[in-house]
Amino acid sequence: MSEAEIIDKLREGSEKAFRELVDQYQQLVVNTCFGLLHNTEDAEDVAQDVFIEVFRSVDKFRADAKISTWLYRIAVNRSLNFIRDNKRRKWFQSFDDLVEAKKKSLGELVSGNTENPEFDLENSQRSLLLHEAIDALPENQRVAFTLNKYEDLAYKEIAEVMKLSVSSVESLIHRAKKNLQKKLYYCYKKKCI
Amino acid sequence: MKCKKVHKKLIFYLEGDLPEKEAGEVAAHLAQCVDCTAFANDMKRTLGVLQIEKSPEVNPYFYTRLKARMENRETAPKQIIGYPVWKKVLQPALFSVLLLAGVYTGFKIGGMANAEQSAQAYAETELVPFLNEMESEPIETFLME
């Protein structure tokens, strides 16, 4: 089924078209959410919300746009909202819940390849460090960097998703890399790993 | 090129974003500076994590769960009107009022039970009759019996 056909059938409420859409774009959406949330379960939850929103608001979709651009935009917005809500929730969360969540995320990172636990542990530490550095970036830089790195999107595509000019995206990614470098150098000096 | 300048350009060098001339200068510096090479290797390994994480495995039950969630949303009863307001505003307010009432009652009860007064009252009402038997049973009554 072509993109246009999927959209047409979705407008008619076809379940088959919806299944096709999910099969085709599931990885794209989950991957984008994961890049911003760094947690598989959360990424899948938000990805489900993205598809539900798509199903419900398919009438708003402009025929001249690409489905992927639309999906990227919804995935980014939903993920950012999830992060904001989570931040607010943390204020009311008990300390035990926070420790449990941290343990869970560490466990998820460590339980990878058990053949080389030392390598795994180092990788998980690097992963945590990188996630913290990415999360500390300003929102626009974070989104541009994530789309570029996790989804290999070209600057032009990122510009379409973020509704910015290509030069703005270029500048955002340049600044994101500079900020990341600063954080990584600081950590290297302090011997975090 | 000095170390400080190299540190500023390292990420761009590793990502292949530098023009050829500058990349050559950074490479030449790295070839002779142990400290910068160590940092470059460290950063390369950290950024390499992105490649590992890039494509998380596709969950085969994703669609099934998604459908179940959509059906649940359709069949779930609507939330009580004003529930978020109740949860976010009224609930904490009610708990605060209860807490304040508890503290106030505690002070009131504590104020009434003055240590000296209550000890005296206890001695008078509870202990004296037992210690002073004459008061509860006069000698006349005793002799009469």
UniProtKB/TrEMBL annotation, chain A:
GO MF terms held by the record: DNA binding; sigma factor activity
Domain called RNA polymerase sigma factor 70 region 4 type: residue spans: 128-180
Pfam families on file: Sigma70_r2, Sigma70_r4_2
GO-annotated biological processes: DNA-templated transcription initiation
RNA polymerase sigma-70 region domain sequence ranges: 21-89
Record-stated family: Belongs to the sigma-70 factor family. ECF subfamily.
NCBIfam families per the UniProt record, alphabetical: sigma70-ECF
Protein name: RNA polymerase sigma factor
